[in-house]
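Possible regression after last week's pipeline update?

I re-ran a chain I had predicted before the update to compare outputs. Posting the input and the new output here so someone can diff against the archived version. Not blocking, just want to make sure nothing changed silently.
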Amino acid sequence: MLTRLLLRAPRRGIHTTAHTFYSPTPAFLRDHLASHPAPPDSTSVFLLSTSLPDLPAQLAAVQGISPQSIGSFCVSPPGSEPTLSLATFWDADITLFKSELSGRAPAEVGRFQRPERQRETRSEDLRGSTQSDVEGTFGQGWESIWKGETNVDKIAGLEGVQADSFLLLSDSRPAPVLSALDSMFPAASKTGLLTAPTPFITNRPHTLLYNKEILQSGTIGLAINSNPTTKTDFGLSAMVEPVTITSARGNMLLAIDGINSNPTQLLISAIQQRGGTGLTKEEEFFLGFLEGGEIKRVTRIVSGDPGRGAMSLDTEEPLLEGQTVQFMHRSAILFPQPLARSITFTSLPPADQIGDHPIGTPRVSEGFLASSEEGFIYSNPQSWVCTAPGAVTTTSWYKGW
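New output (post-update):
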């Protein structure tokens, strides 16, 4: 369950390299790695695009470059070249760990729905998305329903470990692991990627590579005894001034302060003021949560009822009266470039169909960049999953950044 790499003597700082290979061939990858060998005490992290040709040979080339490694699969943005991203750490106090903890299946969420569209949806896909659902379940203890189990599990292999930060690769349901890490390491930074599903590649829901072991669910990661620098940009534009929640139940926003306390009507009005004609299935809207005047997290708006005002959000975290929130809209998506000595994760919009990924000339760029339609993990300091398309989080353990 646990692999520990400890320094024999104190070191001044962690050393890292980070690269993204565009359209690599196995031969190009092997030649580059042979000319830039990893130190003997190194630990590596790698992510391969599911659209890469000859995946077995690509994986074989990268999997053995360090004594310890974790890896998985990611998704390249539509119309972009497939990539292989690789980061290597050495002269560092690092603990590899794995956890089989995995959350419940995610709720079916999508774009903004009119009430008549909700009635056409299967009842099991609408849990908690109507006023009657709120009233019927509130007596059962809403937080236990929307936050899952009240008991927070521990990750046995991490007890007693010193860690200032975590780099994670997970399946699509990391909530129990994030809760455990927040409980055990409340001040530590957490960053990571919800990896790409792989049923058509490996016949597994997910493929998490922990050294030579393969897991199909859970989370693998590095516990790093070093503080990184992190930046998160949600890629969203504010639509109205911040408001305060005055009534909520679970994931349902029921009322806000102001002249119009109906949150759905306020959002529709904001859309019309921006030149829109109303709610459309192509639109995506988000609710931002502010602390100290700064957006700390965002969650997708699933549906709303203009008559009653009730608005359903894609979150397992109960909304609370008194929280300051702001309606937000996705701007144009700009796919980032890798940054030297940094690890960058970005969230992609769900693809309706398999797109083309042109193959270019093999080349390598400084910096680690990987994308996922499932979202990425960030913390401030509590851990969250961001699925807002175009959102980006960048982490660097390089002290000069």
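Follow-up from reviewer: compared with the archived run. Confidence is low (pLDDT under 50) at residues 1-12, 106-142. Marking as no regression found.
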